[in-house]
């Protein structure tokens, strides 16, 4: 059965890639559109459009009819990445030079802008009787993603961030787009709105769980599998769930140790990562984070199990695909 699930996912992924290659994003001026095609072509798991197609396939066949709207979600996701990389001054994206590094910041800003315009062009292929509803939910989601990014930026200059504030930020910045992808696919397939809402809740909950998993992997992943520097969040004092919980629970020497490493300007990176990780271990932060992460995953998969009158083979494939993402090690 596992091979059948993998085969279904691979078929959908191949259909998305073939469809993207057939799309005309724009060609003139070349300096505007080349960065768009570059970013869209350097990989990515295509999780969001796959969620759209899987949610649609729960209720209807012939997913080929919605490939363009599905790819609109992927285009929007990459638009946010292009602008995030500018704000973070990130040199790499998916192991390749980020757009503003390969070209320049102004080009990246403008190319990102045109990506968003193309998203709305793609969404115009939504059937007319569903267009208003889909645009309403898409616009709400797009605004929430921006709100989440702003909150994340705000947290950089704040000394303290609460657990609730952090969870809300990652819900907005990351999870709501996963939820929308599933909701979108279900709506396009004429699913009842209460079913679409269950899929939305499934996506949001596992999306929060994914970010908590990322926080954990940054500290505890194996270097050979992670694909980036383990402990990068510790080095930069990024306010992850682990650091927030550690500051909340630390007393005495543990609180002093966290404060010392947060305030140190000149330090050995390896020493700082080892020291803060040891503090996390002493306070059981890994176990606490894993429990919170698993609670969100469990809540999400419970929503998926409540769906009725769906194609069970597709439901099992969606469950399998999500669990593979949950169990990743990088």
Topology of helices and strands:
Blueprint: H1 2-22, H2 30-41, H3 47-57, H4 67-88, E1 92-93, E2 96-97, H5 99-102, H6 105-123, H7 128-156, H8 163-188, H9 193-220, H10 223-226, H11 232-235, H12 241-249, H13 252-263, H14 269-283, H15 285-305, H16 312-326
Antiparallel strand pairs: 1-2
Structure description:
The chain is mainly α and 330 residues long. α3 (47-57) runs antiparallel to α16, α9 (193-220) runs antiparallel to α15 (285-305) and α13 packs antiparallel against α14 (269-283). A two-stranded antiparallel ribbon has the order 1-2. It is built from 16 helices and two strands. The longest helix is centred in the middle third of the chain and has 29 residues, at 128-156. It has helices at 2-22, 30-41, 47-57, 67-88, 99-102, 105-123, 128-156, 163-188, 193-220, 223-226, 232-235, 241-249, 252-263, 269-283, 285-305, 312-326; strands at residues 92-93, 96-97. It has one domain (2-326): Farnesyl Diphosphate Synthase, CATH 1.10.600.
